[in-house]
Amino acid sequence: MLSQRFLLPSFSFTDRQTNEPTQKILDMAEATFSREEISALRGIFSLYDTDDSGYISTKELEAVLQKIGRSGDDADKIMEGAEEVASEGKITFDDFLALLEKGNKEVPGEGPDPKVLEFLRILEEYRVKCEDEGNYLEAGRANAQVETLRRQEEKRQQKAIRARQINERTEVQIAHNMQYTDFNAAWDKYMEEYDNMAEMYIQQMTERHAVKLLEFQRGLQKEMTQKPPKWSRELLEWRRRQHILARQKNYSEAQKIKKIADSLEDKERGSMNTSHAAVFARKEASFRQQQQAELQALLKRIDARRKEHIKQRNLDCKRLLQRNRNVQAVLESKQAVESVKAFADIKKDLMHSLAMSTTRAARKPLSTN
């Protein structure tokens, strides 16, 4: 049956038993990724886990990293880590999450710059020294430099956080684009297979109809040929008189009657042939009509099923896009909260660093070289 052959494929990237991360890994990963992001990463992992074993090779990991935008030193570090944890050249989804989570932790640029902190310390100690010595104008200039450098460092760290967040959103978008491309490719392949199978069914039915029609024509022809002719009473009477005259040895009259009977028989045979041809054509047309109705029913079922597939594809596409939009929205919301906290922490840490420098400067004189 068509409905049994053309089953709708599954394209939902849901949890699979072989790829379910352990709770420990999940707890660690959620410090970096949301559940929606983990679900998206699981979907990407599943694309390369073609045999549903729960593993991908380190070579496939390179392709995954390239797909999600990990390159350069970041990708090299992840691949080095993969070589260490790989079992027979393969890693699990747990390993994959842990490697990505570790790679995110090692992203440089967000922490305070030690050189800037050292310079701030020197400037703050110099400011305190000038203040203690009563050189207030110089202390004011040093304080202005401290504030300028502090604001620059604060903006630099904020910019690094924003850059990292943009990179995160880009990676998610790349993953979504890849997912959408694979979704369309899978559906295109499925619809192509469906159309090819439909063409095969139509071809098979057409060939079967041709064979059945030939069998029907032969059977009908045989039936009409074997059926004895039904002559008129007039012709039968002429034949009866012909035979009587022949038995009476009145051959001359018998020959005359035979000519009359033969002429009448030819006329009636022609009429019967015309009638048989009309009956044959009518029955053949009826048989062809039945076959055409059967073919139209098949075409209707194929078209209806195809429309169902297209409708399901559109529905799945909307769900996929909405799910991806939700992931993006959750990520942006998470990043907004993170930015508020991180920016406050940056300011607090810099102020604390300056306060510590002031305390140390009050305890000891500024060293000069």
Describe the model.
The chain has a domain at 19-106: Orthogonal Bundle (Recoverin, domain 1). The longest helix is centred in the C-terminal third of the chain and has 113 residues, at 251-363. It is mostly helical. It has 10 helices and 2 strands; from the N terminus they run H-H-H-E-H-H-E-H-H-H-H-H. It has a two-stranded antiparallel sheet with strand order 1-2. Residues 36-71 form the EF-hand domain. It comes from Triparma laevis f. inornata. Keywords: Calcium.
Outline, from the CA principal axes? rod-shaped
Radius of gyration: 46 Å
Number of helices: 10
In total, the number of strands is 2
Write a short abstract of this structure:
Keywords: Calcium. This protein has 369 residues and is an all-alpha fold. The chain has 10 helices and 2 strands.
Features:
mainly alpha; disordered N terminus; two-stranded antiparallel sheet; 81% helix; 369 residues
Please give the structural blueprint.
Layout: H1 2-5, H2 23-29, H3 35-48, E1 55-57, H4 58-67, H5 72-85, E2 90-92, H6 93-105, H7 114-132, H8 136-226, H9 233-247, H10 251-363
Antiparallel strand pairs: 1-2
Helix pairs in contact: 2-6, 3-8, 4-5, 5-6, 7-8, 7-10, 8-10, 9-10
